[in-house]
């Protein structure tokens, strides 16, 4: 290796032999526990899953009600307790399954570290790095453990994730490097001095890969709603209890006569009905199942709220390389520009291609320019994405520079004076380079200066004087075959696309046009305004941006988010890490750097860009289904609260037993919600989930509560016995509940017919099967009760239809439209191009478009 004969100059007690540790020394450190092993969970712990599903406020209320009923000997009415236990078990089991699936994927795709042991270079898992290990650092690596530099060849690190400063930091022997920083230039060696929990990388990994159910509009809205319910349960339960005791003849008579237990049972029924117990469960299950489904498509979800975030994405920023193109670069041609080129320029290109630290573009030079004579540089300036050029000097050979033409030979300033590198004749060079770039080819220029490159000049990182172009080099990238279809899907779904790349803007624009994007030109990022508001205005008008630095990529994402957009960012390079971390949803390619994958919410494990439409569709399915299911649960909460208040004020006996409510809830909400939460749904997500849900649930709940109260008053005045009144109330609630289910499931087709039909059969069965009817205390209805129940059901159904009609139009008015300027227009080259996501399975659910 190039640093084998170099040692560090900093103070250290470490043995700095270039061979690194021996196998025996590694074993000793492992035995002492001096390894980088650190439990950095890729998902929630088993205990946190149990706590989230078991130890909740409402589970506590349910448990208290369950115990009260058991103590007074009314176990039949404690049926809801067993249902709650079953729901908790199902929810925990679903999340455990998701945890195992995600853990397996994360383990298979865990990053590794490069170390030198016994004189050999090895790739080892991060956990196997030990104290005093010699790290081998190259461009694109993330430092796996805290270490001290012992050798450096223009080693540059990006420590922005640690300090927030995006400027590269030069590292010399003796300097400290912290884990989590990223090598962006040069190469070097470092000896580990902190591992495990003491190293920053493990903390970063733990935070980045945390399995979390937070930072979600759906979940935060539900938590806020549950908080409101918790505040009103106490007063309402006292109101209901008082009404039941009064209806039983008064407090004193009820206590003396032993009828107080019926009042308690009725109060428990009212309390349990008010709690949307299954809603949080269904949300957790939907998130977990969404993550597992994406995992089956080779998409690793590193944070569960990302599933919901996918639904909210309305703008996606794409890096060109690895997304629109395959990422493999091949040499295209050499275009000489010097009439009398300096001798040895082909040998210089051969040296660039054979350099161990060469990037992907430089490595393409190996085949066309094989090494014919070995060259030993006396000084060099490593490539950096911030300046986009590198330089090397050979004894007596002057200085050679390889980089972007517009960076090596920038245009003259406003005063007409050339830059340090500018000289007459370079305008034609830039024009020729722009012409080649417009064809979609990447261009580099090899330039020469007779000025010798000394160590001092290399340290200053300035272009030499009297620099003259020698040859223009062009490279080609293969466009992904699925890119056009994928971009067409985004355009149809109202998801805007912005292409940001570090390459020449005209090259990027040409490739964008090749995949159908309406991009007549690209914007050079060097002209972008620093003000984020001005930048946001420009981003609304333009589609393609080139020569974008890592900091500018982050600023672009920030500017878009400040304008209210939910932004996804894809990329695979180190220069994408800052933007991916800043985006609402960061998406990394498996082929990308470990740093990029560490901060991403999603990782495309097979690197296929065509997964992105399916990823967005999965997020929309989850969010839209949760909203639909929430309307079912919140409608029940609304009518249960309304019933409790109405019957408490009217001093009427509560018209249900807990067991009767448990069965109607299961048939009209619980079982159907489980299936509806997992069905296809392609509706675009719009913020305001809770407002939209409550705008249907509250009016619908009021209608149902008023109808049941009216029925109960009329039945009581008609002298109908209490058990028959309850049987009629149960029938009304079952019929109306199924109608609410039908309204929210429209259009009714496919599996929805089976689900609703099955629940209707179940409602009939609880009346028709004697064993079920006896257990639920359902009796045969008299003609009067049957007529009242039927009339009440029809009135409630009519009211529900009116509520839904008004609700749909109100939602349409409050739903914002996508600004036309933001949607990247994709030109169709042939009719009949499919609009469904590539590789998508199952029919598209259009329910939200029509109801």
Give a brief rundown of this model:
By secondary structure, the chain is of the alpha/beta class.
Q: What is the average per-residue confidence, as pLDDT, rounded to a whole number?
A: 78
Strand content: 5-15%
For the largest beta-sheet, the strand count, sense and barrel status come to: 8 strands, mixed
Helix content: 40-55%
Q: Between the first and last Cα atoms, what is the distance in angstroms?
A: 67 Å
Unreliably modeled segments:
1-17, 204-215, 413-424, 828-851
Please tally the helical runs, counting DSSP H or I stretches of 4 or more residues: 30
Named at the architecture level, the CATH assignment of the domain at 214-291 and 617-814 is Up-down Bundle
What CATH first level of the domain at 214-291 and 617-814 would be assigned? Mainly Alpha
> Over the alpha carbons, how many angstroms does the gyration radius reach?
34 Å
Structural classification:
alpha/beta
* CATH fold description of the domain at 214-291 and 617-814: Calcium-transporting ATPase, transmembrane domain
State the fourth-level CATH superfamily of the domain at 214-291 and 617-814. Calcium-transporting ATPase, transmembrane domain
Number-wise, the strands total 21
- The coarse silhouette is elongated
Oligomeric state: single chain
Main β-sheet, spatial strand arrangement: 8-21-20-19-9-16-18-17
GO cellular component, one term: plasma membrane
Pfam family, one: Hydrolase
Main location: membrane
Protein name: HAD-IC family P-type ATPase
